[in-house]
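input
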Amino acid sequence: MEIVLKIKKQNFEKVKNVILKDDTVSKASITFKESKSLGLKDDSYYCYISGLDEVCKKAMELTKGLTENINKKEEEEVISKIKKEEEEAMAGFGGIFG
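output
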């Protein structure tokens, strides 16, 4: 399962601490990104989590009230941009070590 949590700037540190300190959720694949680094105009952060259904659901429970719901289109756009960045980074490492 993949989810994206949208985080207001003032809640970023709180959400990051809650997610990374939880023994279950912290074992998932977690990426934090500032919206502007993804080419988006708003002033917020995104947390992309890829893991088991239970882990993603727990992350949503832990951050309830600290994150915003986003529509499917925005979620897909954020996931696509994060994955593209990761692929480009891996291609760069391949060129160095390859």
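quick obs: Residues 2-97 form a domain with the Alpha-Beta Plaits fold (CATH 3.30.70).
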